[in-house]
Amino acid sequence: MCGILGSVDIPFSEDILDLIAHRGPDDFGIERFQIGEHDVHFGHRRLSIVDLSPAGHQPMVSPCGNYVLIFNGEIYNHQELRRRLPQDFEFNGHSDSETLLNYLIYFGQQSIADLNGIFAFAFANKVKNQMILARDSFGVKPLYYSYNQSGIVFSSEIRPIQALLNEHELDGQALVSLLRLRYNAAPRTLLKNVKKVPSGHVITWNFSDSKITHESHFYASQLPETIKGSKRELVNAYGDILEASVKRQLLSDVEVGVLLSGGIDSALIAALAKKHYKGKLKAFTIGFEGEFEEDEIADAKETAELLGLEHHVEKISFHDFLGLIKECSRIVEEPLATTSMIPMYYLAKLTSAHVKVVLTGQGADEPLGGYSRYRSEIIREHLPSPIRSVLKPTFQLLGTKNDQLIRGAKTMEIANEMERFLSVYEIFDKEEIQALLGKEDNLSKELIGHFYTTLDCKSRNHPAEKMMALDTRLNLSDDLLNYTDKITMNFALECRVPMLDLELVRFMESLPLERKVNYREGKLIHKAFAEKFLPRKIINRKKKGFQSPTNRWFREEMETLKKLLLDPSSAFSKVFNLSSVTKILQDHASGYNKEKQIFLLLSIYYWFDSNDTN
């Protein structure tokens, strides 16, 4: 894991590269060269994981000098890829970076689809006067870019781009979409002229003497055909592929650990890692001081003892909660509504003191139907239309303050598939966004629709499958994986995601829906395989998620929140209708759960506070 920074016709020095020094404290380099008439700078900050020798140094230049690579991530099948190359290719070391450089030279851009790993890279081809930017199939690693008449800048993080191009202009439509989706879907960010490479995409930049042109295309696979097989056959096949994934992702020349919650996903990953790891496997868990029913320390401790793991635990208190939200917002760079970034901050800090690489169970819920929204789609198809239409008014009449229940009932009556998906995803609905910003959402449908079309979701029989495919490439990439990467790399910690192994996801998406989810529960095949390693009490534990006690804290500190979010002199107040913000705070204080909405507003507030937007 590393940090990359590059530019065309816009020089940068070591001090700009140092803005991402936290991503790679072990080594750095800057390479300056020309493509045609254009001056190109490639910079790299290295976190040494595979091949700790100078042979893994980047930027990496081919012996002929015509090809240059900067690469962030891990290619787990790189040894297999290396064997496909002719024997006359010379290698100085055993790094996956060197494999990737030579593989791209020999097989060309189309070979990116062969890479099984997590990556963001830039590859310069002086022979073709061309440069490509590529991001892995599920967007585990971030990659941002910006271009204008002066040139191009791209980076693992936004800060260097802003420093070089002084980009601060707010994208108003992206802000509206953020309120609805709770994250900015690629390629948009809150900065009008800063974009994200979408997951599974490659951008090709062509250089001529007079101009630079570019095009983006989806290189990854579309959704596979549904396979057949008995339950036993499919469970065994799933287990073999999952175990191979974990074994691949233990590839490292430094110590590896595992993030351990109380749930089945991290427990199963830990069990498989323990089976194949040489040495004492360390596990890490975060909990909270005081009473908090979602605390997972006791459950994780039970799992660690069962598996024989070296368990490291830390309980945290929120003595400076607002300061922590502000710091997480700074690190993540993009506002999010996901409160789990708070415990992730402490978990990454704890873990980085012991290991440089860690496995996580993240990524199982989306392709295997772990969330209630997928089960709701299955339930919906069995409900007569008259019943769907009365669910929301019935709940409102009963006086429920369960915001999630009300929103879920509302989606049941929406017939249009894309509109229903958007309703399921939304944090704020159209009316609330209109009240907060005075604008309509004209962007979210387009952003979701891109992947809906690209993946050929229409060919899938069930809406739940389509939603799962979209979430695997959008919700994961631009929300959960985004904050996980930024926060772990802030502590120079490489976080790997075995559940998003390319071969494994292809298999999961080829399974019949009934092997993944039904109206009662999800991750059916996952749980069936887990029985070979874990007792049923761990497999059947109630899903807690990776939560923090923000709901309670927001109620206890309501006056502090009001002083902050309702400050008429803030940059936030110049964009948001404060009377509508007041209503959200009041609703939360009266018993409605507006935790995510308030967290997102706080995250946006701090974003405005650190960006001189116009």
TrEMBL record:
Pathway: Amino-acid biosynthesis; L-asparagine biosynthesis; L-asparagine from L-aspartate (L-Gln route): step 1/1. It catalyses: L-aspartate + L-glutamine + ATP + H2O = L-asparagine + L-glutamate + AMP + diphosphate + H(+). Keywords: ATP-binding, Glutamine amidotransferase, Ligase, Nucleotide-binding. GO terms for molecular function: asparagine synthase (glutamine-hydrolyzing) activity. InterPro entries: Asn_synth_AEB, Asn_synthase, ASN_synthetase/amidase, AsnB_N, GATase_2_dom, Ntn_hydrolases_N, Rossmann-like_a/b/a_fold. Pfam families: Asn_synthase (PF00733), GATase_6 (PF13522). This is asparagine synthase (glutamine-hydrolyzing).
